[in-house]
Design a protein that fits this description.
By secondary structure, the chain is α/β, with parallel strands linked by helices. It has 14 helices and nine strands. The protein is globular and about 70 Å long.
Length: about 375
């Protein structure tokens, strides 16, 4: 048989089988494979770069030769399959998904004629098994509270349970929606975004100094080596460092200090979680590089053909990129910590009433002992 690949057509001989009625299936290509997945990836990449169906067809013919190129109908079928996959994926139930961490972010794309760039909202997370998962993608129109609230409500309606920690940037609409829809989850502001905000408020000559001082606040290796484990004690120690930073730069750079101190409690929420997860969950840049690559490709054409095309293409890129995302490993102590946090935040003890008291005395409630 002949298999079309990015290196051109490759002829593969099928061995003859004797003494069996079972059909031969190649361990390399499987059954009925006529082309490699690399060609479909090229089709997707071509569309992300703004090529039309005819452009993709001609580009493949130039690169691989007429015999190896995909036809216009095949290219259209691949792109239609992407749309169908996205529709199925975006409507799937999420009841079986239990997340420790949920990351929320948005990226801007021009998708409507005559309109400015609009956000595509994205959610991804890390499960209780430590595996990364791409959760959801949708057009937002804006990054308002209503837009993010509708996005999160839709996820909850599909069965997504609250995570232990929500990691995001400091966008007001996103924060407001998160606090409303996922009220029981802790919230972590992205330390990378906050660093950029702080550094932007000091003179260029002081950027390196302030940036280094900022990141030294959250360098906890010395604290953990000295026996300070994850939890309130570690949070308190880092909050003290924030105070020291504020005292050091209050007169020189008051705007930068004000930026750092705003909503400061949400800068240290991650310290309540296993130490082995800290560097992974203290920022929301988990997907930033992939979003950035998609934006660079789309910039070539200025505007995507429409909202549906934009979502299909962005999803195709992120879905394939997500297969290479790394998860997290958790120690036995970390598992116990996560279990305790889940009970405290999401499964608190049910209050029970004590026996009735004499008339005139109020009844007391106590927490049920697990």
């Amino acid at each position: 048989m002949t298999v079309k690949t990015t290196a051109g057509p490759v002829t593969v001989a099928r061995p003859k089988l004797r003494g069996t009625t079972e059909r031969f299936a190649s361990a390399l290509f499987g059954k009925g494979i006529a082309r490699s997945n690399a060609l479909e990836s090229l089709v997707i990449a071509g569309f992300v770069r703004g090529l039309s169906v005819r452009d993709v067809e001609n580009t493949l013919a130039d690169a691989l030769g007429a015999e190896a190129a995909l036809s216009k109908s095949t290219v259209s079928r691949v792109c239609q399959a992407i749309g169908d996959e996205f529709t199925t994926w975006s409507g799937r139930r999420l009841d079986g998904l239990e997340l420790d961490y949920l990351f929320l972010d948005a990226s801007m794309f021009r998708m409507h004629p005559g309109a400015r760039a609009e956000p595509v909202l994205a959610a991804w997370g890390i499960t209780t098994d430590g595996k990364p998962v791409f959760v959801a993608l949708a057009a937002g129109g804006s990054e308002s509270t209503d837009a993010w609230g509708g996005f999160l409500d839709e996820l909850r309606g599909r069965g997504l349970r609250p995570p232990l920690l929500v990691i995001s940037d400091g966008a007001a609409g996103l924060i407001s929606a998160t606090e409303s829809v996922l009220a029981r989850s802790l919230r972590q502001k992205c330390l990378i975004h906050r660093c950029r905000n702080v550094v932007a408020k000091v003179p260029a000559a002081a950027h390196d100094e302030v940036r280094d001082a900022y990141w030294s606040i959250f360098d906890t290796e010395g604290l953990t080596a000295a026996g300070t484990g994850p939890g309130q004690e570690l949070v308190t120690a880092v909050q003290a460092r924030i105070d020291a930073f504020a005292q050091r730069y209050a007169k020189l750079y008051p705007a930068a200090v004000k930026c750092l101190l705003t909503d400061r409690e949400q800068l240290t929420s991650y310290l309540r979680f296993p130490a082995e997860h800290h560097k992974r969950i203290r920022h929301s840049n988990f997907i930033e590089r992939t979003f950035g690559e998609t934006r660079r490709r789309v910039k070539v054409i200025g505007r995507l053909p429409g909202e549906a095309s934009c979502l299909n293409l962005v999803w195709a890129v992120l879905d394939r990129a997500s297969r290479g995302w790394r998860g997290v490993n958790t120690t036995h102590g970390g598992l116990r910590l996560l279990h305790d946090l889940r009970r405290q935040l999401l499964d608190p003890p049910t209050p029970i009433r004590r026996p009735s008291h004499p008339a005139g005395q109020p009844e007391e409630t106590v927490a049920a002992v697990a």
